[in-house]
């Protein structure tokens, strides 16, 4: 055998392994300093070296940097500003097969060394399409495990990855309100007044402020501080809003999406250009088809809203009869509420031996007639709850009583006033959380509302009537979104959380509870599905649950625009062909 043939044969396993598996930090294939220096010369900002957000507290617990970490820990906008932070810190950690957890806890008293966990090790602070093209080409050339991160809100940890290379879109903040917008390639007659173009890093609080300054309203998400990204994962996974029953989901309101695909091409996708890709981007999921650089949404003239507030509690950790009746009635009228345009959130949360039942809904009050009908429906419900609460004390048994703190509707002059009053401050993140969810079909709610309510009452969580109404008026084939959304009346979510330092066995026990609860939700309507953005990491059949009958078409479109599968995320399109860590093809 010749020497050159021997060298070739010896090299074979290395070559096939490299092609089958992603290159991670620490592997021999990881780019060297001069290759990173070359990349650095092609992008506008110095390369990022992300670290877990608590890191400053391990350098000096008394430093001002550590004090800033402690203050910011539960603040969504602070977290979004950190290159190495996810909104749920558990996704910054990494659990080895032997149960050891690599983490960097804010609780330094646990005396666990600060480690990198799943935080990406190096990356590009993208400020332009050119930066993203350079970063994508670099990741593709070196076969790197790529993470695309915007705000880090992802509930399945899809915006980081152990040993990964990061593209951080957070600082792409341009906002343009277009007096008249015509999508690229569309006839001049197709134009939209005051459509708004958001670069990839714009967050909802920034988008809402800009739209409001032009007297316009956007269909968008809510979180304390408006920290969720307006042009990243939220949109690509579907994007629900309290306004969705009136105006549809994010994917129903986007006119154009610009992106960089895995060969570094910059494409503008809309109904006229790359319509297949535009279809897939509307619901096929973040981090899957390319890196979005900007999106353009339609807007609506500002309008007044009616808001509904309900707050009730009992001194018990499981629902009593009156509370169950109040909740069951709310489930029963949910299809009617969403038909009338009501959207929002109902939370069931146990705390210190009490159980809290809180609802926050809104409806646009553009026309007095529609507002009057919607107000009448909600106020009739509140009258029913008030009567239940009043009667609940009659037995004299404190366990039967429902304390009603609020049950009223009130007008706000504009949608933005409602948003600014309730969502500009507050802390909602910074906790170790995993969730599970399911989309409840309208026909199941209508035919079996008692069983639905009974099941939901066993699972602390959130019922979100952010479907139905206008969401159901869009054909399921119009976008790549899971068709289950179009038949749904509500999206229901449960979750588990744990303290830092919990062992893997303790965490796995909670995960088992989460899996059981999600299975109960799934059992209500197995033919339905779940919302890709707020869901369980343990769906038994993710392709069915998140994409339903659209999966095959989404996979085919991905093969066209990402033939090298550079963009793979947990439970996303194509992920079933990879191992659990998304490092090697099966
Ligand atoms: C506190 C909180 C409140 C929420 N409220 C809502 C709500 O009201 N409505 C709702 O529908 N959802 C809501 N969500 C869920 C939210 O939609 C998802 O977490 C979503 O993935 C966030 O997208 P992001 O871009 O901000 O986050 P990231 O975690 O940065 O990204 C999420 C996913 O999108 C990908 N991605 C991000 N940017 C891009 C890009 N430019 N191009 C390609 N891929 C990209 C990432 O790779 C990742 O896979 C909420 C979540 C939290 C934690």
TrEMBL record:
Residues 1-18 form the signal peptide. Pfam families: BBE, FAD_binding_4. It comes from Lentinus tigrinus ALCF2SS1-6. Residues 114-302 form the FAD-binding PCMH-type domain. GO terms for molecular function: FAD binding; oxidoreductase activity. Belongs to the oxygen-dependent FAD-linked oxidoreductase family. InterPro entries: BBE (IPR012951), FAD-bd_PCMH (IPR016166), FAD-bd_PCMH-like_sf (IPR036318), FAD-bd_PCMH_sub2 (IPR016169), FAD-linked_Oxidoreductases_BP (IPR050432), Oxid_FAD_bind_N (IPR006094). This is FAD-binding domain-containing protein. Keywords: Oxidoreductase, Signal. It comes from the Eukaryota.
């Amino acid at each position: 055998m010749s020497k050159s043939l021997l060298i070739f044969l010896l090299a074979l396993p290395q070559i096939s392994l490299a092609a089958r598996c992603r290159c991670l930090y620490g592997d021999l294939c990881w780019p060297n300093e001069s290759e990173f220096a070359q990349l650095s010369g092609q992008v506008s900002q110095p390369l990022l070296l992300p670290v877990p957000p608590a890191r400053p507290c391990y350098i000096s617990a008394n430093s001002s940097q550590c004090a800033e970490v402690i203050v910011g820990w539960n603040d969504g906008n602070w977290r979004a500003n950190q290159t190495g932070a996810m909104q749920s810190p558990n996704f910054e950690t990494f659990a080895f097969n032997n149960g050891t957890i690599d983490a960097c806890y804010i609780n330094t008293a646990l005396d666990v060394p600060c480690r990198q966990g799943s935080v990406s090790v190096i990356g590009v602070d993208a400020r332009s399409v050119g930066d993203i093209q350079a970063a994508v080409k670099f990741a593709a050339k070196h076969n790197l495990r790529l993470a695309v991160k915007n705000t880090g809100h992802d509930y399945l940890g899809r915006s980081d990855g152990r040993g990964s290379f990061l593209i951080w879109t957070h600082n792409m903040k341009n906002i343009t309100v277009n007096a008249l917008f015509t999508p690229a390639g569309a006839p001049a007659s197709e134009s939209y007044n005051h459509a708004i173009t958001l670069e990839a890093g714009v967050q909802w609080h920034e988008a809402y402020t800009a739209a409001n300054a032009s007297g316009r309203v956007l269909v968008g998400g809510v979180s304390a501080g408006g920290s969720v990204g307006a042009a990243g994962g939220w949109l690509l996974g579907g994007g629900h809003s309290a306004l969705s029953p009136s105006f549809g989901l994010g994917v129903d309101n986007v006119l154009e999406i610009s992106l960089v695909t895995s060969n570094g091409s910059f494409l503008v996708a809309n109904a006229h250009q790359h319509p297949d890709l535009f279809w897939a981007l509307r619901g096929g999921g973040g981090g899957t088809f390319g890196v979005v650089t900007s999106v353009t949404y339609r807007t609506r003239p500002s309008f007044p809203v009616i808001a509904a507030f309900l707050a009730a509690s009992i001194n018990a950790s499981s629902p009593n009869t009156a509370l169950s009746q109040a909740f069951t009635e709310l489930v029963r009228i949910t299809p009617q509420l969403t038909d009338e345009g009501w959207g929002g959130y109902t939370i069931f949360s146990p705390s210190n031996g009490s159980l809290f039942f809180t609802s926050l809904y809104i409806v646009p009050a553009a026309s007095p007639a529609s507002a009057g009908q919607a107000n009448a429906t909600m106020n009739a419900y509140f009258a029913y709850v008030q009567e239940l609460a009043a009667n609940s004390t009659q037995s004299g048994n404190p366990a039967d009583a429902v304390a009603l703190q609020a049950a009223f509707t009130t007008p706000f002059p504009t949608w933005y006033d409602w948003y600014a009053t309730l969502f500009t401050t507050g802390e909602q993140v910074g906790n170790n959380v995993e969730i599970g969810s399911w989309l409840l079909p309208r026909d199941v709610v209508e035919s079996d509302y008692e069983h639905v309510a009974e099941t939901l009452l066993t699972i602390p969580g959130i019922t979100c009537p952010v479907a139905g109404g206008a969401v159901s008026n869009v054909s399921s084939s119009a976008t790549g979104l899971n068709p289950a959304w179009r038949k749904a009346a509500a999206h229901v979510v449960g979750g588990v959380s744990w303290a830092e330092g919990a062992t893997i066995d303790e965490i796995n026990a909670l995960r088992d509870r989460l899996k059981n609860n999600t299975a109960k939700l799934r059992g209500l309507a197995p033919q339905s599905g779940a919302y890709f953005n707020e869901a369980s990491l343990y769906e038994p059949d993710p392709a069915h649950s998140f994409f339903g009958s659209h999966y095959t078409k989404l996979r085919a479109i991905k093969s066209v625009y990402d033939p090298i599968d550079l963009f793979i995320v947990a439970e996303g399109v194509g992920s079933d062909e990879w191992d659990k860590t998304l490092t090697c093809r099966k």
